[in-house]
Amino acid sequence: MIATLRRTMLFAPGNNPALIKDPQIYGPDSIIFDLEDSVSPAEKDAARLLVFCAMKSLDYGRIEKAVRVNGMDTPWIRDDVEAMVRAGADLIRLPKAECARDLVALEAMVEAAEVACGRPVGEVRLMAALEGPLAVLNAYEIATSTRRLVGIALSAEDFVTSMKTSRSADGVELFEARGRIVLAARAAGVMAIDTVFTDLSDEEGLLREARLIKQMGFDGKSVINPAQIPIVNGVFEPTADEVRKARRVVAAAAEAEARGVGVISLDGKMIDKPIVERAARVLDLARASGAKVGEEER
Amino acid sequence: MSRTSIGRDIPDSAGDLGKLSPFAGAWARAEGVSAPRKLLSAGRPTKVLSGIDEAVRRSGLESGMTVSFHHHFREGDFVVNLVLDAIARAGIRDLTLAPSSLTSVHAPLVAHCRSGVIRRICTSGLRGKLADEISRGLLEEAVLIHSHGGRARALREGSISVDVAFLGAPACDAYGNACGSSGKSACGSLGYARVDARYAKSVIVLTDCIADYPALPASIGQELVDWVVPMDAVGDPKGIGIGATRISRDPRELLIARKALAAIDATGAIRDGFSFQTGTGGASLAVIRYLRELMLARGIKATFCLGGITSQVARMLEEGLVGTILDVQSFDADAARSMAVNPRHIEIDAVTYADPGCPGAAVNMLDFVVLSALEVDMDFNVNVITGSDGVIRGASGGHSDTAAGAALSVVVAPLVRARTATLVDRVETIVTPGESVDILVTDRGTAVNPRRPDVSAALKAAGVEVRDIGELRELARSITGDADPVEYGKRVVALVEYRDGTIIDAIREVK
Amino acid sequence: MDILKPAVAGTLESCDAAVTVEPRPAGSLPLLELVVESSEGRFAAKVGVAARAALAELGVTRAKVTVRDRSALDCTIRARVLAACLRGAEPACGAEPVAKAAAPWEALK
Questions:
Q1: Do A116 and C9 lie within an 8 Å CB cutoff?
Q2: Which ipTM score applies to this complex?
Q3: What are the tens digits of pLDDT across the range A228-245?
Q4: Are the CB atoms for B431 and B496 separated by under 8 Å?
């Protein structure tokens, strides 16, 4: 199914049966079966078949099944797309997207595969991972390239290398890229997903980074280990106070609509539409965190 | 009238005291008082022998007798193999081997079983090659598998009567005061060995560190020890457990641990002044990590933690989160060190820990216990002794003791390991009866024993998703498919004794 | 599909299976020889069924196939058998690592 939240997108190495059999138990918002970096060139065929067979026969529940295919300039992309669309992938995540043309070309492949296997055209969504300086500069054109595109993601490892720097604790080297990506995503009305945090032993560092990107406006983060999921999801979990306020805002908006009143007011103050939208998102996040956002309390 | 050796006349008898024995010299009856302590030179007894061979000779051990050992050195133990080699050299046969447990380092015992030195085994656990061979019919006589509490009961009652206990100790003085928490092979608590020392007819301590007399307080006191045998090494520190036990990094085990803690918390068991125990196994040990975080966040403390102790629990004692540790077995060097330095880290023996027949088993004071499992079935029966192939590869340990004693017993396991379902229609072997298991927590969901509707209601009220055990079983089946049945022979190779001495299951030979 | 050269797919890691396919010389019987060696003996028969089903999907009727199973799920057995066969279906000479026989996706359910 298509995710409405993507706080965490969990990578699962595509050629590892132990790691792709049940990643959904860790509760990510999306699973990304990886056919790209975690798979050596000699094993591309085997990984593609393994993910295909797994998706065909295992029940991943109500969690978005994404696949990171190989790049547009590789000999594997056509087979990857055909196999994954047939296998039932909800989303294709394209690595090393450089410009809108890449996404348009990918969309054509996806559409051909949808038609060939009888899936409704347009069902498979796309996400682009931006990994180089040019990609970041093209963030907005990529974000608006096709109607299937639901988000753009930062992939920092290649990016910092291209930028002749390396990753640091405070992430200053990514500041511009993150800023542009989140700005482009918001302008285009798609999601912004942050890069992975690779030091598995540094939970404090992950927590700091997750707080930073949430504050910057990102929707979520790609993660490489299931143990990172509760930490990142925790950052996106609204506080009880936020939930209480949001619930009152949403209730006031519903009441105004029911009475056919254009102006929403709460405690004698007028409430703007953006505040209502933000409140609705807070309740979405709260529900995803397992909180009861009871109708009964309205 | 009769005359003492000093020449005083005393009556032959006196009222209720009956017949009297006249004094005959200060050491005249030394043998009678404390046989076989014969090395009484110049009134200064020495118990120190030249080596294991002499110890076997002096112990009075004969063919057909029962010898015992402890398993505090775990996979690092040298004592059992070396002593059995010496016993074989002495030509003694047909022994009952009654250690508190055996591990995979004891593979050399296979030869002693074949040659007839060992006729029968009573133990809590069996692993590795010895376990494989026993499952294939190595011994004529069935192995008796008992729980730690059940063994303590059997020794106390005398249903296992130990003739000679060979007890390795990381430190011991020349007069037999043995201690577990110092020396190069420090293993911490000697809780299981203390029961052997108390009830065996003859007690031999083997040590690689002779301490100055008096090495008190001692785990095993001089009043119980007949002989002391110096050795080069009683064990390999690597196998005994060096440093701190690491909390698992396996995300699946961490997930199960988090779910387990949420379920326990939902019952209200985690409140100021509670008590707990966690068993071995990644997920159950990992519960401690999340428990500690929860306790810090709430500002609550536990009165005591029981059982096998790890560095994490020792740290909680030092942080003031746990008031007292009752330690029957220390799993790592940090726990051993803690016992040596912290007055509230208290060594207890296996009777005090879990003996179901004694009036004061600590397991009965537990609020909750978290336990691992190899298999669990639809009736919540638990197998911790045989693999899904029917071969022995585990230990009963304190599983049934703590499950029975604790107010809430929680079993944690992945629903499926590789392709092997943990939740099955019928466990291969029952060690702990389902009636003493309250909650099963798996990576795919949590089920509550129908015998505990109160627990089920509490979990649901707290928003913890409770799944029917049959539904979880179907989920496991949908992933793995149905396994073909294990092909067993007719012969019984082991009997699983419940803690009260009744037999709860029989393990048959595997073809 | 004809198996033209020996090929391997998969690993001996837990949850995986290493599958070997070899051409069968003309005239040798049976045409299709399947050997299953499993770390989880109670599933060995099921592994054999899954492997045969995968061979049938590709129409492989003449080969020697060895499955060394490390407690893999059926879908993994299927994937590894398919991968080994597709690799073995390539001619031996001049084959590049990436240029394997294309999987007939439309035929795979």
A1: no
A2: 0.92
A3: 999 999 999 888 888 899
A4: yes
